[in-house]
Design brief:
It is a single chain. The chain is globular, with a radius of gyration of 10 Å. A hairpin with a 5-residue loop joins strand 2 and strand 3 (32-34). The chain is an alpha+beta fold. The chain has helices spanning 15-19, 44-53; strands at 2-5, 24-26, 32-34, 59-62. The relative contact order is 0.35. GO terms for molecular function: electron transfer activity; iron ion binding; iron-sulfur cluster binding.
């Protein structure tokens, strides 16, 4: 499973980084980014929770 963030749509709320810091972090532009592109099995549920919680739906998880 791979994670990606549409940084153009990111509103810098940091919700994803608080839910799943193993996969998401804030970059130098204060936008969320995927730091673990290939999500490890132990982080998958939190990554899905972060995607579902994103208020602007800019997180994508795909096989």
């Amino acid at each position: 499973m791979k994670a990606s963030v549409d940084q153009d749509g990111c509103i810098s709320c940091e919700l994803c980084t608080s839910i799943c810091p193993a996969v998401f972090s804030m970059n130098e532009d204060n936008k969320a980014e995927a730091i673990e592109e290939d999500i490890q099995e132990e982080n998958l549920q939190e990554a899905e929770d972060a995607r579902d919680a994103c208020p602007v739906s800019v997180i994508d998880l795909e096989e």
